[in-house]
């Protein structure tokens, strides 16, 4: 019997507790489920705005990004935490649509509230597994970019297979990125950064934007995130990787 929280939505007109349903399978997922309290403000934002700016990743239809974003080029952000950095990037670049995918309900509500407060109409919040979103709901060559900031590093060796940035994920991502589009990753976990650099460098569908083949300086458009601040407080080094989808 599934847990009650997966079968009874906390917000009937908001994000579904298990949007993909039967599409679940044993494989690497783009997230680690988390449960935490939704504040009154976040809940009100979900009730009020989900029908306009939210969508469930159910795996049942292909999204018309032009219709969803009014023709703007679209960047997919996988995992946005509480959404502060996403909202800031959207505010500073209103000519780009941001499709922000996560499963964290408080973060979804918070990002919707930030978008409404700032008048940012170029954000859409996707609820569920970004792998299903990429594989089944986005057309080929449809994304102008992809951002994966501070994904779970799965530090224990036996869990490394759960890391998101792996060859199979990159192959899938490459089919949805337009040629020339940039995949931007950032992590404060140095062993994961080294693995990211290794698998991205080896992948035939991507090329490093850095002429020396190493890590990139943090670009001005990426704000300091909450996770980054926590990492810096612990003395962690933050590494950015910007790899371009090749033309082949």
UniProtKB/TrEMBL annotation:
Substrate binds at residues 156, 188, 225-228. One of its GO terms (molecular function) is tRNA (guanine(46)-N7)-methyltransferase activity. It is an enzyme of class 2 (transferase). Keywords: Methyltransferase, S-adenosyl-L-methionine, Transferase, tRNA processing. InterPro entries: SAM-dependent_MTases_sf, tRNA_(Gua-N-7)_MeTrfase_Trmb, tRNA_methyltr_TrmB_bact. It comes from Streptomyces virginiae (Streptomyces cinnamonensis). Residues 24-37 have a biased composition (Basic residues). Catalyzes the formation of N(7)-methylguanine at position 46 (m7G46) in tRNA. S-adenosyl-L-methionine binds at residues 77, 102, 129, 152. This is tRNA (guanine-N(7)-)-methyltransferase. Its EC number is 2.1.1.33. Residues 1-40 are annotated as: Disordered. Pathway: tRNA modification; N(7)-methylguanine-tRNA biosynthesis. Residues 1-11 have a biased composition (Basic and acidic residues). It catalyses: guanosine(46) in tRNA + S-adenosyl-L-methionine = N(7)-methylguanosine(46) in tRNA + S-adenosyl-L-homocysteine. Belongs to the class I-like SAM-binding methyltransferase superfamily. TrmB family. The keyword S-adenosyl-L-methionine applies. HAMAP family: tRNA_methyltr_TrmB (MF_01057).
């Amino acid at each position: 019997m599934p847990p009650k929280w997966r079968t009874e939505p906390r917000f009937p007109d908001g994000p579904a507790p298990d949007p993909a349903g039967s599409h679940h399978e044993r494989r690497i997922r783009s997230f680690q489920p988390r449960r935490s309290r939704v504040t009154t403000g976040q809940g009100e934002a979900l009730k009020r705005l989900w029908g306009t700016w939210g969508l469930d990743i159910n795996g049942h239809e292909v999204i018309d990004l032009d219709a969803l974003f009014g023709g703007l080029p679209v960047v997919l952000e996988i995992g946005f935490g509480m959404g502060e950095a996403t909202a800031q990037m959207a505010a500073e670049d209103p000519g780009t649509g941001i499709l922000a995918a996560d499963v964290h309900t408080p973060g979804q509500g918070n990002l919707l509230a930030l978008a409404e407060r700032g008048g940012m109409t170029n954000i859409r919040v996707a609820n569920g597994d970004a792998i299903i979103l990429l594989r089944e709901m986005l057309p080929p060559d449809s994304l102008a970019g992809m951002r994966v900031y501070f994904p779970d590093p799965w530090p224990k060796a036996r869990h490394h297979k759960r890391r998101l940035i792996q060859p199979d994920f990159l192959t899938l991502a490459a089919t949805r990125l337009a040629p020339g589009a940039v995949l931007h990753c950032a992590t404060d976990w140095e062993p994961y950064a080294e693995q990211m650099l290794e698998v991205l460098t080896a992948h035939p569908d991507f090329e490093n934007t850095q002429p020396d083949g190493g890590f990139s300086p943090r670009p001005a458009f990426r704000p300091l995130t909450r996770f980054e601040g926590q990492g810096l407080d612990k003395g962690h080094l933050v590494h950015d990787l910007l790899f371009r989808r090749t033309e082949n």
